[in-house]
Amino acid sequence: MPFSGKISPLTIQRLSLYLRVLKEYAAMGKVAASSGEIAEATVSTAAQVRKDLSYFGSFGKKGQGYNIDELIEAIEGILGLDRRWKVALVGLGKIGQSLIQFKEFGQIGFDFVAIFEKDPEKIGKSFNGIPIYHIDEMPRVCEEETILIALVAVPAESSEEVFQRVLDAGIRGILNLSGRCCFKPPPHAFIKNVNVAAEIESLSYYLTHF
Amino acid sequence: MPFSGKISPLTIQRLSLYLRVLKEYAAMGKVAASSGEIAEATVSTAAQVRKDLSYFGSFGKKGQGYNIDELIEAIEGILGLDRRWKVALVGLGKIGQSLIQFKEFGQIGFDFVAIFEKDPEKIGKSFNGIPIYHIDEMPRVCEEETILIALVAVPAESSEEVFQRVLDAGIRGILNLSGRCCFKPPPHAFIKNVNVAAEIESLSYYLTHF
DNA sequence: TTATAATTGAGATAAAATTCACAAAAGCAC
DNA sequence: GTGCTTTTGTGAATTTTATCTCAATTATAA
């Protein structure tokens, strides 16, 4: 790795945002951007942008800002997006079905290659061109296909069991949409929780008190 | 309000998680829980749980922990969940369709009462029993129905314009699923961004570097 | 060649968030 | 009632994160 030390997860999330706006800029034909511009587009501050980048190296030119193509390449390298990732979907309910059709995953380098389900009705068929396996087959399929990332979209009740099985199948990164928010992963694995219900509850807090 | 001062958004998010596990406990018939138990269930720490709660009052009993029903009621009060909220869905694409069928919103007090769309094909009809209006009708409908919260699930390209129109319609809380991450709301409004693509990118970072 | 303006990178500083640590209850057993 | 155990609430200490500041660098234009 070209860098050392522990980086805050907040920095990582922001890099992802910076990358988005940089790609927008590139698509517009823009060649350079300053930390101030990037900050404004991501609701951040110039100092924050520079500090985040500085953990990984010096990518800008004093007086000139950042070359957009170079910075895109740098951030993609940092985030490990200079490759493609195979992803499994676990749970083909409403949410799973809608996410698997979501084109942005492919655009940013993540390919769904397997779906795992319990419902015998669905197994053996395919959805959106992706084969549906029984969840028992996860260890075999994930190994054969070298799948390291899973998107878990099962009902909250079954999620705890499913997390365990997913980790046992060799998955190291879980994107959890099950609504069951909290599961402590083993040290070699990572979980990101996306919880729309919790987010709307914080909106309620702010509307109530401000 | 029974409290003063600025509370960290991180505290608010965690209260939401605490509430979830407390409701699980209540459903199991449990009557009391300690900060340690709540912490374990939410992947937090006992001190963090106590500190978060302490910003709003004293809800526990020394040596005994927290009465679950009482604490649920307290947190619901804090978060403004001791009432029901009317919610608009803006954008009836795949994501919008799947979210509006998501039962948990109703269970936690949020009712979809209107859908706004641009597509003339859909307007005038209903989806899942909820009427579909043209987006131009938002100001009128939101006022008549006193809708203060909107879930925005439109394509990233149109989101900037849509945010503006949503705010102009009197909406004060936006849950943004458009993928376009960054929009600075005016001081009386609040935006919560949910960005699955950005989350999966951080997973890539961790798998690459650890 | 020299002034001018823009902007980075990073050390110093400030602010925010988390953890520590412990006195003060509260129940229980005897 | 006394001693033991549990667990809260909170001020203090620590750690983490964000902001500020400015010397150094680059391009530009006179």
Question: Care to describe what's here?
Answer:
Two copies of one chain form a homodimer. By secondary structure, chain A is of the alpha/beta class. Chain A folds into two domains: 9-79, Arc Repressor Mutant, subunit A (Orthogonal Bundle), CATH 1.10.10.10; 85-198, 3-Layer(aba) Sandwich (Rossmann fold). Helices cover 44% and strands 19% of the residues of chain A. Chain A has helices spanning 9-27, 35-41, 46-54, 68-79, 94-100, 104-107, 138-145, 156-168, 196-209, and strands at residues 32-33, 60-61, 65-67, 85-90, 110-117, 126-127, 130-134, 149-152, 173-176, 190-193. In chain A, the strands form two sheets. A seven-stranded mixed β-sheet of chain A has the order 6-7-5-4-8-9-10, sandwiched between helices. Chain A has a three-stranded antiparallel β-sheet with strand order 1-3-2. In chain A, α8 (156-168) links the parallel β8 (149-152) and β9 (173-176). In chain A, 41% of the residues are buried. The model of chain A has no long low-confidence stretch (mean pLDDT 95). The interface between A and B is large, with 64 and 64 residues. The structure holds a DNA duplex (30 and 30 nucleotides).
